[in-house]
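lol ok so funny story. i was supposed to be doing the assay writeup but got distracted and ended up predicting the structure for this chain instead. priorities right. anyway since i did it might as well share w the group, maybe its usefull for someone
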Amino acid sequence: EAFMVARTAAEVQEASAWASQHHLPIVVLGEGSNMIVRDGSLKIMALKLELPGFEVLAEDDAGSKIGRAHV
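and the output, tada:
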């Protein structure tokens, strides 16, 4: 349905407001996320976070990361 890249906290808020207005849940994509879907098959807003200052707090053996960004 929709895709946005957020590089600032204001862009995250903008995406959230837009998704709310369009009654769409937000699915957050992090570093290295791969997503392949057929057009029209998901009714979501996919939000890719590219916030500066991302810090990895933990990583498991599969490469999944938990982190935070200072915005």
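Residues 9-21 form the longest helix (13 residues). The radius of gyration is 13 Å.
back to the writeup now i swear
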